[in-house]
Specification:
single chain, mainly alpha, 7 helices, disordered N terminus
Length: about 190
């Protein structure tokens, strides 16, 4: 009878529930919803399951919190792993964004260089000014991409960098095509 009385007096694992909740909150604060979303979802689901199990056991005459304690222990153990993954993925995303922005800046610099070396001739001044304006806009967009990076808006920074690089490559292609046309015309005149 004493054993039944002792079992019936088992207390809910409130401290462990608080600790597990804090573990989940730390993962949320580490932006796990963005950088480790599936892991955070599993963590949150497990916490809800454990809380529901505690509530279920609270309603029983002789509660047993063992199952809830195991789930809460898993949440406590896994929470820091989710935080670490979120930090790691965030830093990888930052590095990818930086790389894309650097590639876009290099493409703009290449187009600038090609324009500086492009042959200037009769009727080309207006085209050159248009290209210079396009390149000026791209440099402004590069600044915006860098601001996205600084503000940790990596998706926006990556999109901007890809668009800038595509446009700079297009401009470089136009300059190269114009240069080849001029060389062909010079070749025909030389015959």
């Amino acid at each position: 009878l004493a054993a039944l009385w002792t079992m019936g007096c088992e207390k809910p694992p409130l401290a462990q529930m608080d600790s597990a909740s804090q573990s989940v909150e730390k993962a949320r604060s580490a932006q796990a919803s963005t950088y480790a979303a599936s892991e955070l979802a599993r963590l949150e689901d497990s916490l809800r399951v454990a809380q529901a199990e505690v509530q279920h056991q609270n309603d029983r005459f002789i509660p047993s919190y063992e199952k809830a304690k195991q789930t809460l222990a898993w949440v406590e153990k896994t929470g820091p792993e989710v935080v670490d993954k979120a930090h790691k993925v965030k830093e990888e995303t930052r590095a990818q964004t930086r790389s894309l922005i650097d590639a876009a800046a290099a493409a703009v610099a290449s187009a600038d260089q090609m324009l500086a070396e492009a042959p200037k001739g009769k009727g080309s001044q207006q085209d050159i000014e248009l290209i210079q304006n396009d390149l000026t806009q791209l440099r402004g967009q590069l600044e915006a991409a860098n601001q996205h990076l600084t503000a940790e808006r990596f998706t926006e920074g990556q999109s901007a960098a890809r668009a800038i690089k595509t446009e700079a490559d297009r401009i470089s292609g136009e300059i190269q095509a114009a240069k080849e046309r001029v060389e062909q015309l010079r070749g025909k005149r030389g015959r």
